[in-house]
Structure formats: C-alpha cells, structure tokens
C-alpha cells in the first residue's frame, strides 16, 4: 500500500496550485479540496493507474461553520422564521453552495486525475470507507481518501492506493472511528 497524509494549520497555505490543471474551478475549492488535490497528486505521482480505478472518499461532518453562521444571521435580519429552500438559495452565493456539497472534494480530485471509475462519498466512517474498498469492482488497485476540515480551518487529508485485500484485516473495520484515522501516522 502506498499512502500520503497531510495536515495544515489554519494559517498555513496549501501549496496545491502547481498540481491543479483546471484552474477555473479553484473558486469552488475549500481548504479540504486544496489539500485533497495536493495529497492525491503526491500519491499518484509516477503511478500509471487506469481511469476506471475505483475511488472512494470520506469527508468529515465538520464544515465551514463561519459560512453557516453568516447564513443564519442573514435569515435573522430578514425575519425568516423557518427554513425555506428558495430563501436559503437566495442568501447563499453559488460558489459557496458548491463548497458545501459532500461530493465536491472527490469530484475535483477525480477531474484533476482523470478518474471515471466506480466511486462513492462516505460521511466520515473509517469502517464504511474500508468496506467500500473491499467490495470494489475489478481486480486492480483502489484509491481511498479521507478529509477533515476542522472548525478552526485546519485540515487533514489522507490518500492510499492499494489492492482491496490489503484492507481485509484493517483494525478499523467495524469500528466507529473517523475515516481520517486510517491515514494518521
């Protein structure tokens, strides 16, 4: 198994730009996306993997809390008393809407690496991520990734490229551990 783990503090720049080919999409990137694109690029550097390589990614529940606070404040100042999707969308700029969609991080990693195979987005479960790898179609390697964007804006990401059977005895199978725990040193 080949793996990469990256951690960036809130004030630390993520040096992903040299690895981004679709620069017009960067406006939709979160810090987790930047770190994930960088980690995947480092992991896959020199690897010749088929486009159909299965790719599974787990993202933590913690998102950009400041963004949500801003939306809630807009709701309050406009005397909105209950959730209404139409009003919500009018308060949230399109670029921010993309940033909170669960599948955007693996989507951008796939675009940058030309991945078109089986994929899935998992909500922060090490066990679910490992089971996805174990049940992946095909007989080649599987790409796994996990990210955690902390409330303080620090970010952790990890990626691994391995044959599915390498995960069959993983100690986090069947546990409630967060997905990023697979990659932490």
Commentary on this structure:
The protein has helices at 31-44, 65-77, 85-91, 94-99, 104-113, 126-134, and strands spanning 2-8, 55-59, 119-123, 142-149, 155-162. It is α/β, with parallel strands linked by helices. Strand 4 (142-149) and strand 5 form a beta hairpin. Helix 1 (31-44) packs parallel to helix 5.
Descriptors for this entry?
five-stranded mixed sheet; 5 strands; globular; 185 residues; 6 helices
Bin the helical content.
Answer: 25-40%
Shape: globular
- What ranges have pLDDT less than 50 throughout 5 or more consecutive residues? none
Specify Rg, calculated over alpha carbons: 17 Å
Oligomeric state of the chains? Answer: single chain
Strand content: 15-25%
SSE succession? EHEHHHHEHEE
Question: What order do the helices and strands come in, and which of them pair?
Answer:
Elements: E1 2-8, H1 31-44, E2 55-59, H2 65-77, H3 85-91, H4 94-99, H5 104-113, E3 119-123, H6 126-134, E4 142-149, E5 155-162
Parallel strand pairs: 2-3, 2-4
Antiparallel strand pairs: 1-5, 4-5
Helix pairs in contact: 1-5
State the gist of this model.
The chain has 185 residues and is an alpha/beta fold.
């Amino acid at each position: 198994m080949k793996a990469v783990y990256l951690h960036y503090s809130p004030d630390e720049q993520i040096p992903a730009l040299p690895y981004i080919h679709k620069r017009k999409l960067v406006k939709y990137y979160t810090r987790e996306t930047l770190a994930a694109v960088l980690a995947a690029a480092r992991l896959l550097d020199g690897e010749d993997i088929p486009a159909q390589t299965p790719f599974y990614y787990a993202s933590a529940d913690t998102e950009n809390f400041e963004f949500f606070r801003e939306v809630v404040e807009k709701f309050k100042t406009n005397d909105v008393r209950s959730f209404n999707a139409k009003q919500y969308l009018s308060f949230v700029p399109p670029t921010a809407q993309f940033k909170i969609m669960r599948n955007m991080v693996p989507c951008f990693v796939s675009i940058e690496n030309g991945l078109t195979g089986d994929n899935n987005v998992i909500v922060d479960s090490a066990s679910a991520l490992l089971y996805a790898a174990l049940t992946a179609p095909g007989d080649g390697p599987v790409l796994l990734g996990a990210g955690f964007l902390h409330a303080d804006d620090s970010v952790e990401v990890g990626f691994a490229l391995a044959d599915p059977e390498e995960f069959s005895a993983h100690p986090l199978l069947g546990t409630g551990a967060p997905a990023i725990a697979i990659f932490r040193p």
